[in-house]
């Protein structure tokens, strides 16, 4: 088992990574403070893992359950309210813990509910998708969607602990594994060229869920995220580099209709565009651009824009992204050597040229 710590002074917390951790009661006992616990999950994950998790909790906790419908479309204030209502009905007090058992959707809603219930109760993440294990369960971004925008309502609220059981990934559809891999590759590009090389060598083993290779990669990703969050918890600066590929990616998700492309798939095509822009600006050389594109493709991810999506579609949608500050679109662009920087001086014309020319290379 790997243990890491997200260092945030009095709000620091451990991340445990390993196979079979969900059925280790001592592990949960070590950081769950209160007897009353509510496990929030969904109709897909609960039948697979609720009993396992309860086998660790039932001996020392009074466990309630809240099972939400599955899907991004249920990441709403209604679901948030459903958790709060269930907690009130059960008479749960401030000495309670909310545990999220599921992917990023369950994690984000549950964390937000934990942040709001009686002004904040303990929160624990048990992420079950690759994306949630390497990204959304760490760092304290919680929230729900509003009909006028994705993730528009929420709070920064750190968990008390994160338990990553890599065994869960064996029931995850392979398309979801690939989507999570886009975020894994992102860490290699923005922070760690050694990780990038490791991914180039081992992608087929990772996609086949080789446990020791996968655990070590997940641990590396969490450790990078922990570093970034330690330096910039509320995204005043450096944390924005975690959004590599996301500006283009959000435009793609929006253009094709939410849920048609998975988030990671859109991010992958977005990373290719950001990398090409970087290459054209001379920040990276052609061979590195091509390696990035190949690695994403080897991970089973799309590396081109959706059919029929043109430069004007991108610009129009990117102008409405919540990350646009005072009318300026900020792009995270890869630099050489596992680094990246944020640029605010990219004109719409430059972006249009990139999008129009990339397929003619
Ligand atoms: P998800 O939570 O919708 O999970 C994907 C699908 O896999 C769902 O159908 C789910 O029920 C199913 N599933 C989950 N675990 C499974 C398992 N072990 N076996 C079988 N099926 C399983 O999607 P996701 O990709 O995990 O998360 C996406 C969400 O995360 C988005 O809402 C996004 O906004 C959010 N997010 C948040 C952050 C953050 O920092 N908080 C970061 C990135 C993404
Ligand atoms: N997923 C981006 C972040 O946590 O900041």
Structure description:
The protein folds into 2 domains: 2-171, 3-Layer(aba) Sandwich (Rossmann fold), CATH 3.40.50.1970; 174-360, Dehydroquinate synthase-like - alpha domain (Dehydroquinate synthase-like, alpha domain), CATH 1.20.1090. Helix 6 (174-190) packs antiparallel against helix 7 (193-207). By secondary structure, the chain is an alpha/beta fold. It is built from 13 helices and 11 strands. The strands form 3 sheets. Strands 1-2-9-6-5-3-4 form a 7-stranded mixed β-sheet, with helices on both faces. The model has no long low-confidence stretch (mean pLDDT 96). The N and C termini lie far apart (45 Å). It binds nicotinamide-adenine-dinucleotide and glycine (GLY). Glycine binds next to loops.
Global Rg: 20 Å
Mind describing the biggest β-sheet?
Answer: 7 strands, mixed
CATH topology of the largest domain: Dehydroquinate synthase-like, alpha domain
User: Any idea of the CATH class of the largest domain?
Assistant: Mainly Alpha
Structural class by sheet pairing and helices: alpha/beta
Proportion in β-strands: 15-25%
Total helical elements: 13
Q: How would you name the CATH homologous superfamily of the largest domain? A: Dehydroquinate synthase-like - alpha domain
- Separation of the first and last Cα atoms: 45 Å
Give the strand tally: 11
Q: Secondary-structure blueprint of this entry?
A:
Layout: E1 2-6, E2 13-18, H1 25-29, E3 36-42, H2 45-57, E4 62-68, H3 77-89, E5 96-102, H4 104-116, E6 122-127, H5 130-136, E7 141-146, E8 149-156, E9 161-165, H6 174-190, H7 193-207, H8 211-231, H9 246-256, H10 263-280, H11 286-298, H12 311-319, E10 331-335, E11 339-343, H13 348-357
Parallel strand pairs: 2-9, 3-4, 3-5, 5-6, 6-9
Antiparallel strand pairs: 1-2, 7-8, 10-11
Helix pairs in contact: 3-4, 5-6, 5-8, 6-7, 6-10, 7-8, 9-10, 9-12, 10-11, 10-13, 12-13
Bound molecules: nicotinamide-adenine-dinucleotide and glycine (GLY).
